[in-house]
Automatic annotation (TrEMBL):
PANTHER family: BIFUNCTIONAL LYCOPENE CYCLASE/PHYTOENE SYNTHASE (PTHR31480). This is Squalene synthase HpnD. One of its GO terms (molecular function) is squalene synthase [NAD(P)H] activity. It comes from the Bacteria. It comes from Afipia clevelandensis ATCC 49720.
C-alpha cells in the first residue's frame, strides 16, 4: 500500500468510526476491510454533498463530478480521489453501475427535497441509496451472485425503511418526508408538508404499513443469510442485527406524539458484535 493509499484508508476509517457499521467492517480480513471502508467513504462523501447547505446547483455539479470520476476510474484513468479504489474494483468485481446508482439516489434529494413520494419512487430511492450499497458490499463479502443480489435487495430496503421510520422528525425539520403518498392518503392525510404530517394523529397508521414492509424484508434477508456460510455473512448479519434492534425499539415506542429519539446504546452494540462475530 502506498503512502497515499494508507492516508486514504485512515481517512475512510476515521469517517466510519462513528457509524453502526464500523464494528462489522473491522472484523473483516484486511483486503475486504479496506474495500468496505472505501465504499463507506464514497457513500459518506456523496451523501454529505446531497445534505449540505450549498446552493442546489453547486451540489448537482459536485455529484456530477463524482459521476465523471467513477467513469474515469472504470475507463482506466482514475482521478486521485479514487485511485485507491482500483485494487478493490478488480479484486471484488465492483460494478460501475452500482456506484452510479448511489450517486443518482443521493441526487434525488437535491433538485427539491423529497416530500411524500409515490411508492414506486420511494422504492427506487431505497434501491439506489441502500440496496446499491449492498450490491457493492456483497461482492466484497464473497456471497454468490444470486443470493448476493437478493440479500442486497431485501436487507438494503429493511435498513433504509428503518432509517426512514427512525428519522421521521429529524427529516421533517430538514423539509423532507419519505413516507409514501399512497399510504398517507389512505390514512386521510392529504398534506405533503413534513411538519404538518409528523404532527398528524393519524401518522401511526402510516408507520404501521412501513413497519410491516420492513419486517418482511428483514425476514427474507435472514432466510438468505441462514442458507449461506456463517463466515461469509458475519458482517451483513451484524449490520442487520443492529438495525433490527432499532426497529424493535421503534415498534415498542410507537409513533404517537411525543416521540423520543431511538438509538442503540454501546452495550447493545457490543452484545450484538460478540454474539455474531465471535460466538
Amino acid at each position: 500500500m502506498t503512502t497515499a493509499d494508507a492516508t486514504s484508508q485512515v481517512t475512510a476509517q476515521g469517517s466510519a468510526s462513528g457509524s453502526s457499521f464500523y464494528a462489522a467492517m473491522r472484523i473483516l480480513p484486511r483486503e475486504q476491510r479496506d474495500a468496505m471502508f472505501q465504499i463507506y467513504s464514497f457513500c459518506r462523501q456523496v451523501d454529505d454533498i446531497a445534505d449540505s447547505n450549498d446552493p442546489r446547483a453547486e451540489r448537482l455539479a459536485a455529484l456530477d463530478q463524482w459521476r465523471r470520476d467513477i467513469d474515469a476510474l472504470y475507463a482506466g484513468n482514475p482521478p486521485a480521489r479514487v485511485t485507491d479504489y482500483v485494487p478493490s474494483v478488480k479484486q471484488f468485481g465492483l460494478r460501475r453501475e452500482d456506484f452510479i446508482a448511489i450517486i443518482d439516489g443521493m441526487e434525488m434529494d437535491v433538485p427539491a427535497d423529497i416530500r411524500a413520494p409515490d411508492a414506486a419512487t420511494l422504492d427506487l430511492y431505497c434501491d439506489r441509496v441502500a440496496s446499491a450499497v449492498g450490491r457493492l458490499s456483497v461482492r466484497v463479502f464473497g456471497l454468490g451472485e444470486d443470493d448476493g443480489i437478493l440479500l442486497a435487495h431485501h436487507l438494503g430496503r429493511a435498513l433504509q425503511l428503518t432509517n426512514i421510520l427512525r428519522d421521521i422528525d429529524e427529516d421533517a425539520g430538514l423539509g423532507r418526508l419519505y413516507l409514501p403518498r399512497e399510504e398517507l392518503n389512505a390514512a386521510g392525510i392529504m398534506s405533503n408538508d413534513p411538519l404538518v404530517v409528523v404532527s398528524d394523529p393519524r401518522l401511526p397508521r402510516v408507520c404501521e404499513v412501513i413497519l410491516k414492509q420492513a419486517r418482511s424484508h428483514f425476514a427474507k434477508s435472514n432466510d438468505i443469510m441462514a442458507r449461506n456460510s456463517r463466515r461469509v455473512v458475519r458482517a451483513p448479519k451484524i449490520m442487520s442485527e443492529y438495525y433490527h434492534a432499532i426497529f424493535e425499539k421503534l415498534v415498542e415506542r410507537g409513533f404517537a406524539l411525543p416521540r423520543k429519539p431511538v438509538k442503540l446504546n454501546k452495550a447493545a452494540k457490543i452484545f450484538i458484535l460478540i454474539r455474531y462475530a465471535f460466538i
